[in-house]
Prior knowledge:
Number of strands: 0
Strand content: under 5%
Number of domains: 1
Helix content: 55-70%
Structural class: mainly alpha
Amino acid sequence: MPPLDPKVEDLAPDEPALTPYDEQHAVTYVRLLDAEKANADWQEVVRIVLHIDPAAEPTRARRAYDSHMARAKWVARHGYRELLARGWPKAE
């Protein structure tokens, strides 16, 4: 299983294939997609899911949110196929 609440970078990967970061942040991506579906406020989501204070760091918070949301959508549309084909990585 991936970690439930891993530390996030300021920007998610923008690679044409799944990365180790994506595997570690699978739960983060699902939480972001669920929040979007529920029409949650992005600032609340970035505070809870990405652990960035949007009031203190508005530019960083917005960039991180947009980057991770875009990656979550890419993984949901394309990246999952690679994961299914090779299997979930084994815990160390």
